[in-house]
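A further point concerns the way the authors explain their paired sequence and structure data. Since the whole study asks how a given chain folds, the encoding of that fold should be made plain. A single example would do more here than another paragraph of explanation. An entry of this sort, consisting of the sequence and the corresponding backbone structure tokens, reads as follows:

_____
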Amino acid sequence: MNIDCIAVAGLGLIGGSLAKALKLKTGVTKIIGIDPDESQLMAALGSGVIDSGHTEPGEYLEECSLVFLCAPVPICADLAIEISAFTKTGCIISDTASTKAEIMKKISGESKNIRFIGGHPMAGSERSGFAYSREDMFENAYYIILDDGCDLKAVEKIKEIALSIGAIPIITDSDSHDRAVAVVSHVPHITAAALVNLLDSETDGSLGKKIAAGGFRDITRIASSQPALWRDITISNREEVTDGINRLVEILQKAKTAISNLNEAEIESYFTAAKKARDIISGEREGLLPRKFQIVIQVSDKPGVIAHIANVLGDGSINIKNINVTHSREDVGGVLVVELYSIEDRDSALKILCSEGYSASSIN
């Protein structure tokens, strides 16, 4: 890849995962970590992921050919400008922020010519911090790269790195990016939070909270993400987010009217249209909303059945990430949900369980 030294500023979930992927999957000789949190630096140094660590930018950045900014959205542009004061001519600075227009506008308005390429790996988790980072975070994930037509060589270099860590690069512009992520990530996070707040607002919500398993937990899982992070993201992308919310409210209002008017045809059409659209969305790529590779198994209530399932999957070299008994899965009707690490493990597990006589299906 012809890059000797890369710096990663911000060693949380994304930055830590990027540093690990660069260390293990590319030919980069040296990785420098930057993070104001010394505990994150110590964790990264202790794991051998970075070769040196610093709490703030400095002259040491002169040896870097590329710097990745994995910092919170509000400080990303200012950090790029600060770091550019220490980098050598030709050094590429890129980011991983989930909104782009404001960042690009601020950096392009600087008098100094900063070689900046906006980027956004479409991967994540409701977890945070270096402790939850992993080298396969970006495998089979889309990696958005912004191209304004001014620096094709730099765009190609970020594209090359994205490919080297197993990601799938997509070239676009900042406005298209922000519109798309508002619909597939930002508004869904707001909606998930709204559903949880709806449940919490029930005057006698004890029964609802008790049976809030299955589908409800799945579609609201992202509401457990960091509140401050999503405050910053939604504010940064406020125009596209508010537009998305307005359109969502219109759709919900139409559903509400159809239900109130007992319009059976309109109600069925509402769900039919959603099913058709959902069925053609590819589920084989990683995305902004963290995926779960789950199967649901209908089992009899007798001793040893869970142990038997764990054993047959273990014998088939299938590593179980999580397993739980659920008493409320109205959408699929099962009682045992097994979470695996990859789509390959999920498919193999289904074959093994079916051959053992179990009734099992995937949760898409």
Notes: The first helix runs from residue 13 to 25. The longest strand covers residues 293-298. The chain has three domains: 5-172, 177-279, 293-363.
